[in-house]
Input
Amino acid sequence: MTFAQVLATEFLKLHRSKVTWFSLAALSLGPVGIALMMWIVREPGRAAQLGLLGTKANLSGLTATWPAYFSMLTMVVGMGGMLLLAFVVAYVFGREYTQGTAKNLLALPVGRHWFALAKLMVAASWWAVLVVAVLVEGFVLGAALALPDFSATAAVGAVHDALLAAAIAYLLVPVVAWIAMLGRGYLPPLGFALAMLLLGDVFSHTGWAAWFPWSIVPLLIGAIGKPATTVAASSLIVVALTFLAGIAATIAQLRWADNAQ
Amino acid sequence: MLAVDALDLDVRRGEIYGFLGRNGAGKTTTIRMLLGLIRPTAGDVEVLGRRVRPGTTSSFARVGYLVETATAYPNLTVRENLDIQRRLTRAPRAAVAEVIELMRLGRLADRRARVLSLGNKQRLSLARALLHRPELLILDEPTNALDPAGIVEVRELLRSLAGEQGVTVFVSSHILTEIAHLVHRIGIMHEGRLFEELDRDQLRAKERLYVEVGVTEPARAATLLAAAGFAHVERADDRLRVYDAQGRVPELARVLVGAGLDITELTQAHEDLEKHFLRLTEGAK
Output
């Protein structure tokens, strides 16, 4: 009952926020961008006439087919989504400090941990909506382009990879939430998320990508090397431990840290 | 930095306790400790008979509070902000409309909090504190940003809540006169310590008598009076305030006139409470 009420308040806060619609608009630009790229590859002459292709354009290796399109769509959900999801979580948690409302939540007949869990659940729900919306948009745009080489197996594989990448990306965000509370605002968690993405790239070159949480999504979707066919059990354990540590740190921060706002 | 040191404070049920101190005296830090927002490095805090620790929930269904600046979710309306508080305190649905009426927020109920004036944001924060009809109100400078009519209104509201509904009110302020006539007891905080605790009668007794003297050459007059045994003489603009001079007014006049000075005014007055507070806290430095 208590959790249901907290959850309702968190949904109301997110529903009335511009960030909700901004995040949808931002992620939905991804499929538009790759669809445009597919069209340019297929019709470079018309694209050049329209000024969409510069003299130094290099589209070699790209083909305007469903498999190539799926690969890029998975990349949009995985890499773009990781950053955007961090942005949403930074907002959901950081806003309470930036707007000075955190103190209003901390001396209530409601356990503080419920706020952390409700915020994470709201972020999960919105993330699910974003991912599904972008996948649907991606399929509609791909169909509108009448791309060749469609196969049900490739489509199912792409959806599977995108959903797996989205799920793994989500499991990393409780740490971002903790940083938002530790840093009392939006900027520290955003800086942290960016730094982790960069570190993920560094680890990919050192051969430790499967062990570093923020390298595992790029590894899965092929942003690092070739797309992985499966996620190693050790990587799943790393991600699960990161998730649990993030939740524990978030709840501990909310419960025990002084709030001198 | 030691914000609050060795504070021992008891507030009785049903009373209005004024918690007074200059900016930085430790009032807000104390209030944060009462609410479990920060932990004291030593000692305990009990609210409504239950010990407060970080994350405590047991007492807070019966506590309403406002800490420092008034805040609200800017993209939600006044009604939605209050509805959030209603859900979190498990108050009945009707409580939102009632508190909107009580705090005269009716015409603003469907406006977003971001467009409210500072004074109306303060009203919204007070409404949030009152919504679930708490037994204890902990209010940190509740009249901040309110206009004079709003200040009187809040003062009357607190008086009626304590008098008619038995609500205990713990209210902080840095302006003594603002709360002196509202409270049953007052605690004066200075540099993290409870400096003086007075009930209403003691507070009135503290209003010291003085003689205000308008005189030519006030600097010379002050020296003459000090030499004549008037121990406490203060300059106030072009006048003098002579404390503890009741019964010695004729002597005072003789000293000044005898020295060839002209007296333009001679009146007896009470020191206002603010002066008492300033004298106390300045003397404590």
In short: Residues 16-201 of chain B form a domain with the Rossmann fold fold (CATH 3.40.50.300). Residues 82 and 173 of chain B are 25 Å apart (CA to CA). Chain B has two domains: 16-201, 207-283. The first helix of chain B runs from residue 27 to 34.
